[in-house]
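FAQ

Q: What does a record look like?
A: Structure on top, sequence underneath. For example:
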C-alpha cells in the first residue's frame, strides 16, 4: 500500500482576501473570501501563502482556517491583517501533470524582500533568508515563496533572486509585495533529505 501526505505544486489557483481575524488562546483564525471557498469542504487541506491549513467551515463565499502557535512562530501569519491578500492552492490530485514542484505546505523559515527590479517584461525579486539554510538552495533549483513554485538564481550564502512573469504577478499577491516585506519560504524537499542523510552518515554510503 502506498501512502501519500498532502502535497501541493506551487501553481496558485487564485487569491483570497482576509475578511476577519479572531484569536482563541494562542491560536489565530482567519476568515477568507475567495473564488474557491464555495468549492471547499471541512477537513480539506489548502495552501495559504504556502502554509498548509485545514478548512474548518465555509459558507457561500468564504472559509475559515486556524493557525496554531507553532505555525504562527514559523511563518508570517502572525503579521497578517484584515484586508491582506493571500495565495490559495488546493492539494494535488494524483491524476494530472505536476506543473511546479512537490511542496508540502510546511514552512521552513521566512525571508525579507530586499530588492525589486523591473526588467521591462518581468520582475526580479531578491530575498534575504537565514544563512543556516544555505545548503538547501542551488542555482536554478526550486523554491516555494508564499506558496509559489519559483526558480532560484544569483544565490549567495543568505540571498537569492527569483524572476516573476507578468501572468504570475497579476494572479498572485506578488503584485502587492514591497521591499522589506516578509514572505514564507519552503525549500525543496529533496534537498532536505540529502542534507539529513549527509548529516547522519557523514557522506558515507547509505545502507
Amino acid at each position: 500500500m502506498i501512502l501519500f501526505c498532502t502535497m501541493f505544486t506551487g501553481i496558485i489557483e487564485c487569491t483570497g482576501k482576509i475578511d476577519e481575524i479572531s484569536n482563541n488562546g494562542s491560536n489565530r483564525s482567519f476568515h477568507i473570501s475567495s473564488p474557491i471557498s464555495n468549492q471547499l469542504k471541512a477537513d480539506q487541506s489548502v495552501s495559504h501563502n504556502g502554509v498548509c491549513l485545514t478548512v474548518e467551515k465555509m459558507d457561500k463565499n468564504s472559509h475559515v482556517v486556524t493557525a496554531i502557535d507553532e505555525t504562527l512562530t514559523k511563518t508570517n501569519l502572525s503579521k497578517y491583517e484584515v484586508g491582506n491578500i493571500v495565495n490559495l492552492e488546493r492539494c494535488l490530485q494524483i491524476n494530472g501533470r505536476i506543473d511546479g514542484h512537490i511542496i508540502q505546505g510546511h514552512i521552513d523559515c521566512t525571508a525579507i524582500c530586499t530588492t525589486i527590479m523591473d526588467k521591462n517584461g518581468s520582475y526580479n525579486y531578491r530575498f534575504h533568508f537565514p544563512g543556516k539554510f544555505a545548503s538547501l538552495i542551488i542555482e536554478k533549483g526550486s523554491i516555494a515563496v508564499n506558496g509559489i513554485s519559483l526558480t532560484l538564481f544569483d544565490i549567495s550564502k543568505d540571498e537569492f533572486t527569483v524572476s516573476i512573469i507578468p501572468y504570475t504577478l497579476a494572479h498572485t499577491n506578488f503584485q502587492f509585495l514591497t521591499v522589506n516585506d516578509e514572505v514564507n519560504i519552503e525549500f525543496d524537499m529533496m534537498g532536505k533529505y540529502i542534507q539529513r542523510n549527509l548529516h547522519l552518515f557523514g557522506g558515507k554510503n547509505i545502507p
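Q: Is there anything notable about this one?
A: The helical segments are 69-74, 166-171, 189-201.
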